[in-house]
Amino acid sequence: MNAQYALSGVTRRTLQVLVAAVIFRLAAPSVLAQGQAPSPTWSQEDGLRIVKEIQKRVGSLTTLSVFDWITFGFHGKTVVVRGYASRPIVKSDIGNALKGLPGVESIDNQIEVLPTSNSDDRTRAAVYNSIYTQASLRKYNANQGTVGQASMGGSVARRAGGITNDPPRGFHAIHIIVKNGNVSLWGDVLNEGDAAIAAMQANTVFGVFSVDNNLAVEGSKTKPKEK
Backbone dihedral region of 28: left (phi > 0), alpha (psi from -120 to 50 degrees) or beta? Predict the structure, then answer.
């Protein structure tokens, strides 16, 4: 089962067709092939059971947010986890959540923890607002508004500019990854037009150096590149 799956953060039933797509999307077959041949993998039944258990465990983590993007795949009986974490706790929580999976020999946690940066934090908030206040993209946002509207009154962390430590809650179909001023968008949208608009909105934010659009269109055979 050399395949890769994508996981979003905490989900809501806001846009059900995309919830399923973002949480459990088969993408980039055989990307986990490595130098040495893997040990025998599971039966199809066991593999599907393990996928569902990973989905359940990781999808229930409250630390995951719109500013994280996590994928997983298999190499033999090893679960390989990749992607981007806006905070170290996201990587550690995922590693801890996957411990003790029946039938799994080991967990290879390759998640990249993004640098701590006040500038990147400001970029995250600005890109979030630019994308999710755009009329055609509001449907992808459980909060239906800005970072401020999603703050539930605003925490001390957010008022201090710490959007990474206090991210918007709820389901978001478009995930925003920021590293040293460079933005990458991950997730699923309903059509090519929405994917293009999201990238355009991110590009309008002052201080953004580049935008890498990895959004997949639901039902399209074209899959985003692997992290």
Answer: left
Phi, psi of 25 (to 5 degrees): -120, 125
For residue 162, which of 112, 120, 207 has the smallest C-alpha distance?
120
Query: Cα(161)–Cα(45) distance, rounded to whole angstroms?
Result: 47
CA separation (Å) from 13 to 8, 48, 107? Answer: 13, 23, 30
Q: How many CB atoms lie within 10 A of CB 115?
A: 11
* Cα–Cα dist 156/162, whole Å: 8
16-32 average pLDDT score = 37
Asked whether 100 and 79 are in contact (CB, 8 A), the reply is: no
Residues 71/110, Cβ–Cβ less than 8 Å: no
Domain boundaries of the chain, sorted by first residue: 4-113, 118-217
| Residue 181 and residue 141 in contact, taking contact as beta carbons nearer than 8 Å | no
d(CA 69, CA 216): 13
Q: pLDDT by residue (tens digit) across 117-139?
A: 999 999 999 999 999 999 999 99
With tokens 């550690």, the residue in question is 92
Give the number of other Cβ atoms within 10 Å of residue 154's Cβ: 12
Spell out a b/e string for 156-190, using b for 16 or more CB atoms within 10 Å of the CB, else e.
eebeeeebbbbbbbbbbbbbbbbbeeebbbbbbbb
- Could you count the other beta carbons within 10 Å of the beta carbon of residue 144? 14
Name the residue among 104, 37, 110 with its Cα closest to residue 77: 104
Using only the alpha carbons of the chain, give its radius of gyration.
17
pTM of the model: 0.80
